[in-house]
Amino acid sequence: MLFSVPEHTWWLIGAMATVVLMMTMERFSAVAVEEAPEELRDEAESLRKAAVRVVFAGIPAFFAVAVLLDLLSEQQDGLYLFLYGVAAVSMAVALLPFRRRMYRRYFAQLLTGEKITTDRLSSVWICTTLLVPALAVSALLATLNRTA
Prior knowledge:
Oligomer: single chain
Helix content: over 70%
Distance between the termini: 11 Å
Number of helices: 5
Strand content: under 5%
Order of helices and strands: HHHHH
């Protein structure tokens, strides 16, 4: 078993990671309407509604896939649920701190007609926050496989 944690605990961790990611993504999409200039409020509201639909349909579907993969795996050691939990929490940590900054830049670029891009700091933060856990988990799993 992965880290000697019982299977049902990985299910609980995965469910909690799903809730954390859903709350983060819902909060991420809610900022759009608050930050939008008056002339873009309708567009921001439609974007928010679409994002909420994706959050409440898509994220549980990803959790269901992780559960299905875990159930179909030979060992049922919680590996897929562990990987799902790391990915879900990493996404929440990557997006939440920069949501207002990203929306302000997005709306400013819409108003001026510029090409939609992210600023360097946001890009570095998001890429680093997603890459570091992925590398750490890869190294951890390689170490566990070598010792097993």
